[in-house]
Amino acid sequence: MHNNNRLTGVVGAAITPLNLDLTPDVDRLFAHCTHMLAQGCTYTSVFGTTGEGASFSARQKIDALRQLAKLGLDMSRQIPGIMESSIDAAAEQYRVAADLGVRAALIIPPFYYTPADDDAVADFYAAVVTRAGSPDLGIVLYNFPAFSGVCFTPDLVRRVVARLGKRVIGIKDSTGNLEEGLALIAAFPDLAIFTGDDRLVTRMVAAGGAGMIGGMVNLFPAECVALFNGQASQDAEDLATSRIATVNDMGGLSAIKAVLGLRHDDPAYTRTCPPLRGLTPEAGASVLRELGLEKELAPS
Length: 300
Fold this sequence. Notes:
Largest sheet: 8 strands, parallel
Number of helices: 12
Structural class: alpha/beta
CATH architecture: Alpha-Beta Barrel
């Protein structure tokens, strides 16, 4: 497979800045990914859940990936999300991602029709790879049953691996369940098992996990890298836990984007695609204060 070195590190699950017409603002997305990489992230991941990937067409996402490459983003440090229930749409993105030289593709299972059984999930992944022409690109399975309705148990992972072989190189576990994450690490020592939750990263890494792919990295990239490296104090770990609770309670993704919009003094970072709704400037300022970032509201 392309680049057999095991995936590790902190992956910034990038938000997508938006133009007024709610299309991806690629220039700002490039700048944001570049910033996270400069702060110590090993990779960035566009158009996943945090990137509102299911809200954009395949063509929009493909065009954006190509533009990011033209702007000079190091695509070998990119793990784009593929959030599709259509085999053809997923396959087209997978093919283009491979052509652009990305590190891997993070692919969620189909999320509209309920799979008949575990083999049906494996059928979907196999069909995507075949339709794409079987490019030489690794796949990170995206375990987010709250959105997809599919939970990657060890048995299901084995079914998919049996079909795709070494093409499966990792799993992003966004269940927030430590026991389930540790079970995946124990069952698949050769796969890179990432958590999507800052609160679990130190324990997952200590057990052999690969790191994290997370939305809070947008706001606190250096702090997340410190958590991964085991350089964070207990106070820093407690602060990360508190910050996640604050963001979840105050709007989730919309709260993250609101803080970024205030930091940049730029509404492109705050806009969300319907059915999500962006926060008002007042609500965003409240999130900033609750996160202990009051100085970012102070006039310069």
